[in-house]
Amino acid sequence: MEIVFGVARSAAQIESVPAMGWKICRHGFNRARDFSMNRIESKFGDLKSKRRKALIPFITAGDPDLDTTFELVLEMERKGADVIELGVPFSDPLADGTTIQRASQRALNNRVKLRDILKLVYELRRKTEIPIVLMSYLNPIYKYGLEEFARMSRKMGVDGVIIPDLVPEEAERWLRAARWNELSTIFLAAPTSPLDRIKRIAKKSTGFLYYVSLTGVTGARDRLNSNTIEALRAIKRITNKPVACGFGISSPEQARKVSTYSDGVIVGSAIIDLIEKSSNRRAVLTNVGNFIASLRQKMVGDLYASGRARR
Description:
The protein is of the alpha/beta class. 48% of the residues lie in helices and 13% in strands. It has 13 helices and 11 strands.
């Protein structure tokens, strides 16, 4: 028996979660999971019907600790997040700047592993149905086992996976495992990607397409890449799938501008900066919660105002 996020759980209890969805059982789950459309697709469909855009915050799981991550997910949902992206800490995060590198190191210092993050999602599913995406480099997944990771992700309540160092041309084994377990696979498209390649990437992506707004690594930026809006317009002309834009978005004004031309906005380093600067868990929850609320208010408020102006 162990205590996981304040709840007593045995290994047998965690392993016995039904593979086909949540059912009435002694673990406390009482809602069946419908895989005809997963939570990510359902969320983007719902937002589109309301003429809203998805706010997708990224945090590293286990930074500063798993209990804080658990509370942060719930707080971000309360303040307006639509999808949560949880980063799996890794010792060599090639796509990440220094902010997320430090977050990964703090989580690794806490000995956070992939199986701990899957348990975290399992416990979150007692509290929330918000779509959850794991962002992990290939190494931890490969070590875990591609098929076993897909199976356990589905079982624990994960909705989608981003593997930034896995390209579509080399992903067929993973894609088979993901399709079998009805997980979305979200591929990245870069500013250096020609449109014909982005079209192929979009065809392989499920859930949404992740457009990287800049060349280089993650990290808050003072201004957007000057080509971001033009690129988003071009991508929206060649795919009907939702397109979310991330990397370097760090302010409500930037989020507002990007959301005008995309289906979702991903914000990570600016949130992790707040976590790093906060002195305790209460401060983390307050500071991040207020920032999420400011992003949501700017995105929704300006979209509503522009809609009224057009009428």
